[in-house]
UniProtKB/TrEMBL annotation:
RNA polymerase sigma factor 70 region 4 type domain: residues covered: 111-159
Organism domain of life: Bacteria
Disordered: annotated segments: 76-97, 402-444
Source organism (scientific name): Agromyces tardus
Keywords attached to this entry: Sigma factor, Transcription, Transcription regulation
NCBIfam families noted in UniProt: sigma70-ECF (TIGR02937)
Protein name: Sigma-70 family RNA polymerase sigma factor
MF GO annotations: DNA binding; sigma factor activity
Length: 444
């Protein structure tokens, strides 16, 4: 007999987005879609243990949710548009234009990530309606009050309704401009899980990284030939592969050079490398996510940190900085320069970024490591202090504190840290933000 609880969990993971998307398409109302889907899963929790798991759980949930939605509409006697209601109930409404690709889930993602919504609202709405996370789960993930997340979702759905944002994939002409916004949302969700920003949560949120990867796989399933979709998936996989070795038993972030590479998830690495090779074989000039993935591939290809091909990493960063000349890209490039040309050359680059990155803890962490390698211990200590004051992640704080305290025992700038990468914990998984360009593996 199939375990009902396990079946419900699996169905929620696999079918939630499909159910919500099909309801949103039919009824044109995200509130109705979300509530009816939730009611269908609640009904499954009650009935499946007694009645047994249906042969097709997805179809059962979709049918049940549709009935719940229709019942709700019939109960709402004061709906203003009775003609639209009747059309929905009979399902005879003329079809909306479908855009470049006719897929309910993709329509839902593009609706949640519409540029008319703020980035925070896009992230919350995507995680709720597409990812199926609850409001408390989203609130914990981003360290805000549940009421704040609830308000963001409510306001976002209200804006979609008020602005009559169409529930469809953009046209083929508009799709290239819109897909970037969707990928940016997924990238930010992944980064928050990769290195959580707040002090009162797990330093690594595996639930958020897993959800970002799942949603990116969905996008790639629907847009298999889009290079940046493939690049982002490869970047996430190669970064996630290092997670088992990233945090020590003492709760400190483990630098890449110190990680047990046998503990990495080599299946994810193999998949990520395959995707990178696929894009290289395409002959199409790579975009930002593809370059970040290639940088991660160079790091994860080395069996030992000493075998890293730094000239290749710097060459990839040279390409990336032309696409994304942000100060964080320059910071991560400087970290690679430190390994290829030395700490002094890297420090000159880093110091030029001070005006732009003074409030960014990773800038000070990177600078501290470079000063440490040059034997300038007092300056390094001050830089560590500044980085610790700005950092929020508990594992990062623990690592930075250890390195600062180790300075007291160092006899020269070529102590055991001389082989450590420049940043230690300098950049976040894919780059720490929508405008950044990390993801080199330079942090952990």
């Amino acid at each position: 007999m199939i375990d009902a609880r396990a079946a419900i969990i699996r169905a929620h993971h696999e079918e939630w987005a499909r159910v919500v998307a099909s309801l949103a398409k039919r009824f044109g109302d995200l509130d109705i879609a979300e509530d009816a889907a939730a009611e269908a899963f609640a009904t499954a929790v009650q009935r499946w243990p007694a009645d047994g798991v249906p042969p097709n759980p997805g179809a059962w949930l979709t049918t049940t949710a549709n009935r719940k939605a229709v019942d709700r509409i019939r109960r709402e006697h004061k709906r203003r548009d009775k003609q639209r209601e009747a059309m929905m109930l009979t399902d005879d409404a003329p079809p909306e234009p479908t855009g470049a690709i006719d897929d309910d889930r993709l329509r839902l993602i593009f609706t949640c990530c519409h540029p008319a919504l703020g980035m925070e609202a896009r992230m919350a709405l995507t995680l709720r309606l597409v990812g199926g996370l609850t409001v408390p789960e989203i609130a914990r993930g981003f360290l805000v009050q549940e009421s704040t997340i609830g308000q963001r979702i409510t306001r976002a759905k209200g804006k979609i309704a008020a602005a009559r944002i169409p529930y469809r994939v953009p046209s083929a002409r508009d799709l290239p401009a819109r897909i970037g916004g969707v990928l940016a949302v997924l990238f930010l969700v992944f980064n928050e899980g990769y290195l959580a920003t707040g002090p009162d949560t797990d330093p690594v949120r595996a639930d958020l990284t897993a959800e970002a990867i799942r949603l990116t796989r969905l996008i790639r399933e629907l847009l298999p030939h889009d290079g940046e979709v493939t690049g982002l998936l490869a970047l996430m996989l190669l970064t996630e592969a290092r997670r088992p070795a990233r945090v020590s038993a003492q709760g400190a972030l483990v630098p890449l050079v110190e990680q047990d590479r046998d503990a990495w998830d080599h299946a994810l690495i193999e998949e990520g490398h395959r995707l990178v090779r696929e894009r290289l074989a395409s002959g199409v000039a790579p975009g930002r996510y593809q370059l970040l993935a290639a940088i991660n591939a160079a790091h994860t290809d080395a069996r030992d940190a000493r075998d890293t091909d730094w000239s290749q990493v710097v060459a990839l960063y040279d390409q990336l900085v032309r696409l994304d000349p942000s100060p964080i890209v320059a910071l991560n490039r400087a970290i690679a320069i430190a390994e290829l040309e030395g700490a002094d050359a890297a420090l000159q680059i880093v110091d030029r970024l001070g005006d732009a990155l003074d409030g960014y803890h990773a800038f000070h962490a990177t600078r501290a490591e470079l000063l440490r390698r040059l034997g300038r211990r007092e300056e390094a200590r001050a830089a560590y202090d500044r980085a610790i004051a700005l950092a929020g992640n508990t594992a990062e704080v623990a690592t930075l504190s250890r390195r600062r305290d180790d300075l007291a025992d160092a006899v020269s700038g070529t102590d055991r840290a001389g082989r450590e990468r420049g940043s230690g914990s300098s950049s976040r998984g894919g780059g720490g933000g929508s405008s950044s360009g990390g993801g080199s593996g330079s942090d952990s």
